Backbone:
């Protein structure tokens, strides 16, 4: 017997889902940029997602 945690079990099930098994609960909104640099998001992607300017998110004065 092999035991899986709930997250692993769901991950194994996802490829078997059909369109009729899915329901959109929050349509979200498209973003123009979702680039990654290694494991971190670029400042541009984060500020766009938060609808802020780079200067509002990152303090360049200090």
Residues:
């Amino acid at each position: 017997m092999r035991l899986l945690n709930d997250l692993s079990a769901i991950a194994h099930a996802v490829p078997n889902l059909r369109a009729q098994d899915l329901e959109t609960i929050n349509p979200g909104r498209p973003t123009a940029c979702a680039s990654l640099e290694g494991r971190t998001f670029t400042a541009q992607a984060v500020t766009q997602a938060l609808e802020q300017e780079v200067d509002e998110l990152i303090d360049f004065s200090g």
Remarks:
- The two ends are 57 Å apart (CA to CA).
- Residues 6-13 form the longest helix (8 residues).
